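ARCHIVE CARD
Drawer: 12
Card no.: 0347
Subject: one protein chain, sequence and derived structure
Cross-reference: see card 0346
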Amino acid sequence: MREIPIEKIRKEIIIWLKEYQQKSFTKGFVIGVSGGIDSAVVSALCAETGLPTLCVTLPIHQSQEETERAIEHIDDLKSRFTNVQHQTLDLSHTFDQFVADAPKATKDITDLSLANARSRLRMLSLYYLAQINGYLVVGTGNKIEDFGIGFFTKYGDGGVDINPVADLLKTEVYKMAEGLNIIKSICDAAPTDGLFGDSRTDEVQIGATYPELEWAMTQYELGKKPEDFSGRQKEVMTIYTKRHLANQHKMQPIPKYEIPKDWIDSR
């Protein structure tokens, strides 16, 4: 597993956030806070810039435990940083209306489509709040999610202006949380995307833990394939490889048709 200077990187991220904010002629940051480790770390990093930081809770029939963790974290930030504000938009009614009006497919496809719809509804809300305040929407996806297995919603939680932790592995996000004094309840909580209205964890959805996936990412980058391993290692490599290849459409730029240069009259 790679070793990186976490504290040095934390300080550099804060400088990077401030520089990007200045170049973009915006006033601050808006972050959707879920009660998970990634959004907790990102919101804390934004808070440490000293710039206006709007932490938004966006429940859609969310579990009470997740909501309470998110609010506990935001209250902790507000007690330490005067630049932090909190806003809640309960999107449950809006989501229910969409569900009532939308056509349905088979249960599995409908459930996944609605999970992604939750994420996209939150993205829409964050951009609304960003625009009326003149803020940047800050992403919270880590490296294994965004560039390893594509475990995010296209134009949902993947729809952001900037992402300060996209080059950090999940285990590194946890390490950074220590230096940011993230509350214990969030550090101890099992990772979950909270998109299905139940308590299923990321590990249950994916079939592997984040440390396992980080190992597989390293092996994949070394050119290894599932058939190079046996037992649990082969199983994890298969999970990683299948998701990595299937979700390339999320990780690559939008394909575009390019007019052949010799077809263009530049006179």
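Annotation on reverse: The chain has two domains: 6-199, 207-252. The two ends are 56 Å apart (CA to CA).
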